[in-house]
Structures are given as structure tokens and as C-alpha cells.
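User: Reviewer 2 asked us to show a designed sequence for the structure in our supplementary figure. I'm pasting the C-alpha cells here. Could you produce the per-position amino acids so we can include them in the response letter?
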């Protein structure tokens, strides 16, 4: 069986670790938080056997890729710039794009900024929301859920890192990757991650060895790089004013589980079921709702 290859690509001023396998049309996979290229290990092996070249980088700030210290280095423009440079390094004009969680948010913006580089998009968990010119992103979440909502709690540099450091990293990964609680996660300042539900026994699709792979990489790199994506959200809002009102111009398939946290944010069900997401795309959109699946779709029932 062909093995996954690991290379380092210099792009947009950073060194990016890239996992790849296969030959043929390229599928580019983008992971979320707190994840790595390793999120897509099963998909890489499966789809490469069907005649695709599957490519999954550690995004800026994660794993074996560089992690600039400043949150201002983690705007969607930086991340999309990294990926455009990756495509150039691979010598490819257009790819099929797959994103999950933060990877989905980056993928939406990749399609918005550079539709000329994308053949089609499959996005998981995070629907496309057009920019609201009246309120900054984090401010909107704070008004909806309060200061303890995880996105709001992640804003202060060092605070979330201190909460993560109080718990064994393997347990942190289990809490995130195995949760099936659709309620918005809140992290009170006093209790930190201890407020999140204790992880259940590992499901059949996730082993201790796989948890330990993630834990080892986050022990080495830390969580700051991934947290900086959240800390750049309001900056993204400011920088994207010129893109207000634009639609996605590539074919899209969007998938969200019925236990996904994002599906239970007020207004999201109606937004998806009433065709509002479809109204934001110029090409055909297929919306799927798998039952009994949580936020971490790349793992769940792979």
C-alpha cells in the first residue's frame, strides 16, 4: 500500500508541513481546531485509492508548520495566502477543496477571494455567513452567549493557554474530539476546561494511539497558534469590508451533523433549512444533515 508522504513547503513567509498521497486531480483538505493534518488520515488513504492526489497541510500555527506569535498573523488573508502559495508550489492551478471547522471558514474565504483556484468545495460543520456590516464577529457572539462562550473566552492572550495547561493534553483532546453535546460550549474563567463534560469512553473510530498523536504534537507546539485564529476574528471583520455582500462562486456541498454545536446556534437551523445558505452561492449547493453526528465529522463514522 502506498504510504503518506511528508514534505515541507515554503509559502507566504512560513514553512508549512504537508502530508500527501496518490496521483491525479488534487483534493486539498483543511483541518480545524484543535486538529492537524492527521484529522484527514482516513480520507487521504481512501480517496487516493480512487485516483486522487490527496493533500493535507498542518495549517499555520499547528503541528510541524511554523507558528508566528502574533494574532495579527492569523487573518484569513494570511491563511488563504499560505494555501495559494502551496498550490503554486505543487504546480497546480485548481483543486477540489474540503474544510472542517476553522478549515471550513478558511475554505469559504478561499472560494470568496480566489474562485479561480477552486473546482468545487465540500465543507463540514461551519456554514457560510456573509459579513454583517453592523457588528463585529466576536461582539455578536458575546451578545448572544456572554463572556464565557468559548470563542469569547479564547480572546485574551495567555488565558486559554493557562486553562489548557491545567489539564493533561490527551484529556483535552478527548474532551474536544468526542463531545456529542450540541449546546454552546462555555468555559467559565474560574473553572476553565473543567466545565466541559468529561470525555466518554473512546468510540470505535478513535483510538488511544490516535489521541496520543494529537497530544504529542500539541505538547510540542502548544495551543497558541490555533487560538490566534479566534483572536483575529474581529480583525478579519475589519479587513473584509470590501467583500461585504459577495457570494460564493463555486459548486458547494455542505454537511453538518444534527448534534453539531454550530447547528444549534440560534438561527442557524432556519438559515440552512430555509434556503438562505443557498442564496449565498451562485452555483448549485447540496445541503446534507447526517443524523446523530457531532461537530467532528471527519472522525465520526469515518
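Assistant: Here is a per-position design you can include in the supplement:
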Amino acid at each position: 500500500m502506498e504510504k503518506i508522504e511528508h514534505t515541507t513547503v515554503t509559502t507566504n513567509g512560513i514553512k508549512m508541513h504537508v502530508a500527501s498521497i496518490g496521483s491525479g486531480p488534487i483534493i486539498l483538505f483543511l483541518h480545524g481546531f484543535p486538529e492537524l493534518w492527521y484529522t484527514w488520515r482516513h480520507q487521504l488513504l481512501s480517496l487516493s485509492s480512487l485516483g486522487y492526489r490527496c493533500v493535507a497541510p498542518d495549517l499555520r500555527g499547528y503541528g510541524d508548520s511554523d507558528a508566528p506569535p502574533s494574532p495579527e498573523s492569523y487573518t484569513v488573508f494570511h491563511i488563504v495566502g499560505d494555501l495559494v502559495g502551496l498550490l503554486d508550489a505543487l504546480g497546480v492551478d485548481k483543486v477540489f477543496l474540503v474544510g472542517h471547522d476553522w478549515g471550513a471558514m478558511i475554505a469559504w474565504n478561499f472560494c470568496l477571494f480566489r474562485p479561480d483556484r477552486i473546482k468545487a468545495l465540500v465543507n463540514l460543520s461551519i456554514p457560510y455567513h456573509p459579513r454583517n456590516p453592523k457588528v463585529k464577529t466576536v461582539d455578536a457572539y458575546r451578545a448572544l452567549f456572554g463572556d464565557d462562550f468559548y470563542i469569547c473566552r479564547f480572546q485574551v492572550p495567555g488565558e486559554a493557554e493557562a486553562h489548557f495547561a491545567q489539564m493533561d493534553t490527551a484529556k483535552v483532546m478527548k474532551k474536544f474530539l468526542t463531545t456529542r453535546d450540541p449546546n454552546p460550549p462555555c468555559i467559565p474563567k474560574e473553572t476553565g476546561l473543567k466545565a466541559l463534560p468529561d470525555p466518554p469512553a473512546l468510540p470505535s473510530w478513535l483510538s488511544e494511539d490516535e489521541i496520543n498523536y494529537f497530544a504529542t504534537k500539541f505538547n510540542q507546539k502548544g495551543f497558541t497558534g490555533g487560538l490566534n485564529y479566534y483572536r483575529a476574528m474581529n480583525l478579519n471583520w475589519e479587513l473584509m469590508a470590501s467583500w461585504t455582500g459577495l457570494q460564493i462562486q463555486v459548486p458547494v456541498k455542505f454537511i453538518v451533523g444534527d448534534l453539531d454545536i454550530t447547528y444549534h446556534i440560534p438561527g442557524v437551523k432556519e438559515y440552512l433549512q430555509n434556503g438562505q445558505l443557498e442564496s449565498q452561492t451562485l452555483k448549485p449547493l447540496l445541503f446534507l444533515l447526517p443524523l446523530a453526528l457531532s461537530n467532528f465529522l471527519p472522525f465520526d463514522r469515518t
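For the response letter, you might also mention the following. The domain at 5-288 is CATH 3.40.50.1820 (Rossmann fold). Strands lie at 5-11, 14-21, 26-30, 53-57, 95-100, 118-124, 252-255, 285-288.
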